[in-house]
């Protein structure tokens, strides 16, 4: 039966709401925009337009995947982050708005004479590419344990026309050349392996290696804090994203590793999300 854009969206949103999507209407709109290859304004301007059978079938197939819990970003293959459109694959974490806060804080602190930035566990390249896009005078290196992530970040760099970043396979600092950086940034895995949220929502589909860390989620943060001083220039900053309840232990880890001006800042929901510190040698 022929169905209009408006009705297709309404039906899909109902189905997705029944299957616990936290954002059924938005999910339905994003999936339909993808099928039609149009911006969201099109859906509202042409809400009475009848979908072709082919469009309808394609839309229903995507909605069915979302009903099974698959994240929208994996279904359509990309996520918008900062000013960039980033390809995403199940081998990497899906970039989140909270991480844009880290980018914002990093840019605020990156001095005018900064020359190099390191992003550890870059995944899609989200943080590295956002910083590189705003500071063309700075060279950004992004590293990731997974070679699939390195390839994906390189593709994202190319497709976003960024030339001042490069990516490398490395477990944290292992393959980082002996040089100093003006700033080190990271959104490492920080979820406690026992956290019940791991069996709910989008995270079920994301790689565990990008999400969980030992020692109540703090093991990788500790490793990064302890190793960073050897790779930071005088007065260089370290900024790390972490869980909403990890501000206090993370500040202690920063201070124990020799950082000063240690501070935890909030995400857009007002929760502790990023701790930063300056390495004063
Ligand atoms: N912020 C993500 C979440 O809680 C986790 C990201 C991470 O572990 N780096 O879903």
UniProtKB/TrEMBL annotation:
> Which CDD domains does the UniProt entry name for this protein?
AdoMet_MTases
Per the database entry, which stretches of residues form a coiled coil? none
**InterPro entries xref list:** DNA_methylase_N6_adenine_CS, HemK-like, N5-glutamine_MTase, PrmC_N, RF_methyltr_PrmC, SAM-dependent_MTases_sf, Small_mtfrase_dom
**GO terms for biological process?**
methylation
GO MF terms here are: peptide chain release factor N(5)-glutamine methyltransferase activity
Q: Does the keyword Aminoacyl-tRNA synthetase feature in the UniProt annotation? A: no
Keyword DNA repair in record:
no
Q: Which residues bind substrate?
A: 187-190
Q: Where are the transmembrane segments?
A: none
Release factor glutamine methyltransferase N-terminal domain location, by residue?
8-77
Q: Which ranges carry the Methyltransferase small domain?
A: 105-193
**Positions with a binding annotation for S-adenosyl-L-methionine:** 121-125, 144, 172, 187
Q: What is its EC number?
A: 2.1.1.297
Listed A to Z, the keywords are: Methyltransferase, S-adenosyl-L-methionine, Transferase
Domain of life where this protein originates: Bacteria
Q: Which NCBIfam families match?
A: hemK_fam, RF_mod_PrmC
Q: What does this protein do?
A: Methylates the class 1 translation termination release factors RF1/PrfA and RF2/PrfB on the glutamine residue of the universally conserved GGQ motif.
| Family the entry assigns | Belongs to the protein N5-glutamine methyltransferase family. PrmC subfamily.
Name of the protein in question: Release factor glutamine methyltransferase
Originating organism: Enterovibrio qingdaonensis
Q: Which gene encodes it?
A: prmC
């Amino acid at each position: 039966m022929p169905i209009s854009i408006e009705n297709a969206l309404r039906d899909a949103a109902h189905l997705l709401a029944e299957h616990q999507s936290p954002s059924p209407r938005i999910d339905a709109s994003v999936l339909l925009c993808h099928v039609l290859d149009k911006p969201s304004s099109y859906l509202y301007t042409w809400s009475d337009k009848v979908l072709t059978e082919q469009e309808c079938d394609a839309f229903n197939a995507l909605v069915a995947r979302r009903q099974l819990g698959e994240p929208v970003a994996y279904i359509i293959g990309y996520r918008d982050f900062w000013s960039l459109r980033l390809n995403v694959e199940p081998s990497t974490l899906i970039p989140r708005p909270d991480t844009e806060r880290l980018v914002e804080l990093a840019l605020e602190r990156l001095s005018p004479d900064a020359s190099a930035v390191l992003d550890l566990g870059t995944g899609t390249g989200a943080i590295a590419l956002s910083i590189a896009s705003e500071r063309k005078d700075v060279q950004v290196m992004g590293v990731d344990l997974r070679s699939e992530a390195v390839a994906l970040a390189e593709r994202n760099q190319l497709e976003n026309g960024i030339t001042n970043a490069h990516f490398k396979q490395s477990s944290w600092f292992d393959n980082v050349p002996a040089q100093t950086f003006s700033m080190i940034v990271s959104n490492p895995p920080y979820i406690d392996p026992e956290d019940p949220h791991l069996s709910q929502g989008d995270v079920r589909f994301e790689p565990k290696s990008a999400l969980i860390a030992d020692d109540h989620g703090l093991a990788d943060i500790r490793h990064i804090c302890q190793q960073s001083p050897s790779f930071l220039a005088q007065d260089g900053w370290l900024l790390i994203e972490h869980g909403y309840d990890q501000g206090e232990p993370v500040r202690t880890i920063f201070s124990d590793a020799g950082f000063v001006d240690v501070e935890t800042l909030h995400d857009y929901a007002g929760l502790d999300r990023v701790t930063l510190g300056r390495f004063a040698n």
